[in-house]
Amino acid sequence: MIATLALAGCGGKKAEAVAAEESASEVVVNFDADSAYSYVARQVAFGPRVPNTEAHRLCGEWLASELRRHGAEVTEQNAELKAFDGTILKAKNILGRYNPDADSRLLLLAHWDCRPWADQDPDPANHKTPVDGANDGASGVGVLLEIARQLKLKSPEKGVDILFVDAEDWGTEGSEESWAMGARYFVENPPIDGYLPDEAILLDMVGGKGAVFCREYFSEQAAPRLAQSLWGIAASRGYGDLFQNKFGGAVTDDHVQLIARGIPTVDIIEYHPEQESGFNPHWHTITDNMDNIDPVTLKAVGETVLHYSISNY
Ligand code: AHN
Ligand code: ZN
Fold it and tell me: Whose CA is nearest to atom 4 of ligand 1?
């Protein structure tokens, strides 16, 4: 009744005020999926980014230079990491910071290395062939490079950091610690004194055709509010068919390393319930290539994460 009276009293004005308020609170998010797609293709064009190869070295240099070009303050962290099979990996984590003096910080990350062995390929003859890693690696990095480009155009209020971690994928089944070695090194040896973001979002396999993202177990334990915000943003932007509000299994991934150090982290990772692995059918096969990357998927993830990054959550 009171509302009706108020409306009757200042009808036109009130409508204008409401419209102004709505447009002020509406977040303008520009995420160019074609640009993200070309960032994925650029990485794949180097060849498999397997640690200790020339393709890996050259791609690492390019990633750091792209972040610099997009206005980030870049820190490269080089490390020699001993893999489960005794190989010493010349690894490089690449951190780009936006608004580096802000206290409140959000970290966005993806792994940039490729698995040296397509050991899930249906043809055993391919099990020693390195993967292209278009989805497994390059997709997350491609989305983050496009976010970096957008952050240069529109500086965020909070601090936003983009981290490309190395040596995620030189792991072996049955040994949890053999995966995510670059992420572990990063949290154990922060390249910036006292570096501790408030929260983090990991992107892993975010470019597959027809991908579905469900709520991953460790993320849900460590960062339920962040997950709720992200899935809420996705739904409100019309991506509820990709971001499904369902449980999506537990995944050993880079986020587990951050969570272990007290950083609430959500892993946005494709969930494929009909596969035994739970992953995309091209996962760790020689067909993880550009033919199976869809800009529609990159856009849903990129828009959602960029929206969260430039809003005041
Ligand atoms: C395991 O296979 C245990 N974790 C997979 C994490 C991963 C590999 N993400 C991409 N490649
Ligand atoms: Zn992998």
Answer: 252
Nearest residue (CA) to ligand 1, atom 10 = 136
**Lining residues, ligand 1, CB within 6 Å:** 136, 169, 179, 204, 251-253
**Residue 190: pLDDT over 90:** yes
Q: What would the mean pLDDT of 115-135 be, rounded to a whole number?
A: 98
Query: What is the average pLDDT across 159-169?
Result: 98
Which atom of ligand 1 is nearest the CA belonging to 277? 2
How many angstroms separate the alpha carbon of residue 135 from the centre of ligand 2? 9
The DSSP line for the chain is -HHHHHHHHSHHHHHHHHHHHHHHHS------HHHHHHHHHHHHHT----TTSHHHHHHHHHHHHHHHHTT-EEEEEEEEEE-TTSPEEEEEEEEEEESTT-SSEEEEEEE----S--TT-SSGGGTTSPP--IIIIIIHHHHHHHHHHHHHHS--SSEEEEEEE--SS---TT-GGGS-HHHHHHHHS-SSTT---SEEEEEES--BTT--EEE-HHHHHH-HHHHHHHHHHHHHTT-TTTEEEEE-----SHHHHHHHTT--EEEEEB--TTSSSSS-TTTTSTT-SGGGB-HHHHHHHHHHHHHHHHS--
What is the per-residue pLDDT across 224-250, written as a single tens digit (0 to 9) for each? 999 999 999 999 999 999 999 999 999
pLDDT for 312: 82
Cα of 189 vs centre of ligand 2, distance in Å, is 24
Nearest alpha carbon, ligand 1 atom 8: 169
pLDDT tens string 55-64:
999 999 999 9
Nearest Cα residue to atom 6 of ligand 1: 253
Q: Which ligand lies nearest to the CA atom of residue 178 in the structure?
A: 1
pLDDT computed for residue 154 by the predictor: 84
Global pTM exceeds 0.70: yes
